[in-house]
Amino acid sequence: MSLRSLLVHLNSGERSKVRLNTAADLARSHGARLTGLFAEVAAPDGDDGPPPDPAQAAAASREAFVEATKGLNAEWIALDRGDDDATVKTTTDFARHFDLIVIGQRRPDNSRLPPDFAEHLIVNSGRPVLVLPYSGDFPTVGKRPIFAWSNSGPSARGFADGMMLVAPRAEALVVGLHQANDTTGATDQKESLRLAINHLAAHEICAKPEQLTLSDIGLMDALLNHAMEHSADLLVIGAFGGGGYPLFSRGSGSRYMLRHMTAPVLFSH
């Protein structure tokens, strides 16, 4: 599937600009339509500082959106402020009408974003969600992607969604992980990785397979470490499934990744 419509979540936070710039770059490179959705809770004073005036915050967001999307087919929309539940529900309902959703990782002290905002979007929108870390800039996404492969349904969905974001001539990796001393699992995984590589090749994506042995650092830390070693600008994972890795309860690995990511992560559910 080609990428033709993107939704980027915007608010009054300082990281909104990073999300907007990344989404605008993706829209330009893919010839896609971009919609900016301004949505945040009516938060009290907290670690994020006093809440901005709603009208002024919305106006500033719209102005920044118009400037960043010059030459694009783009639209800015604002949702009415509400409590956590209302913000999550209205954003999730709206997000179902796009190929891809771009949001930011929630800082622990961010009082203007519901704590479970990302999880609800990933699980309930029916769309892949690209989450950008709360620190750093991301001028490119998809030139050095890593696909996490566990021979499971969520991994297969991740492949289909992640292919939308892979740049031409990308240096891609497909990483599988197995537990130490599991020789049968390692052999089966090697064949599964071969098929996964062939699948990407059919879509003109050249990728290399890698098998990693799980150690005491755990599955998600192993993926994060490998992403750092590869200088990955995208990590694609099947989210909230638990399939293929029985040592994880359903969703625990995805929640860990949402807290500790260091590179853009595409979550497919």
User: End-to-end distance, in Å?
Assistant: 16 Å
Query: How much of the polypeptide forms β-strand, as a percent range?
Result: 15-25%
* Principal-axes shape call: globular
CATH architecture annotation name of the largest domain = 3-Layer(aba) Sandwich
CATH superfamily of the largest domain: HUPs
CATH class of the largest domain: Alpha Beta
Q: What is the gyration radius calculated from CA atoms? A: 19 Å
Low-confidence stretches: 243-249
Arithmetic mean pLDDT: 87
Q: Largest beta sheet, briefly?
A: 10 strands, mixed
At the fold tier of CATH, the topology name of the largest domain is Rossmann fold
Helix-strand sequence: EHEHEHEHEEHEHEHEHE
Class by alpha and beta content: alpha/beta
Provide the domain count: 2
Number of contiguous helices: 8
Order of adjacent strands in the largest pleated sheet: 3-2-1-4-5-10-9-6-7-8
Helix amount: 25-40%
Total DSSP E strands? 10
Pfam families: Usp (PF00582)
Protein name: Universal stress protein
InterPro entries: UspA (IPR006016)
Organism: Candidatus Rhodoblastus alkanivorans
Tell me the layout of helices and strands.
Blueprint lengths: L4 E6 L5 H15 L2 E6 L15 H15 L5 E5 L5 H12 L4 E5 L12 H8 L4 E4 L12 E5 L3 H10 L9 E8 L3 H20 L4 E8 L4 H11 L4 E5 L13 H9 L4 E4 L1
Parallel strand pairs: 1-2, 1-4, 2-3, 4-5, 6-7, 6-9, 7-8, 9-10
Antiparallel strand pairs: 5-10
Helix pairs in contact: 3-4, 7-8
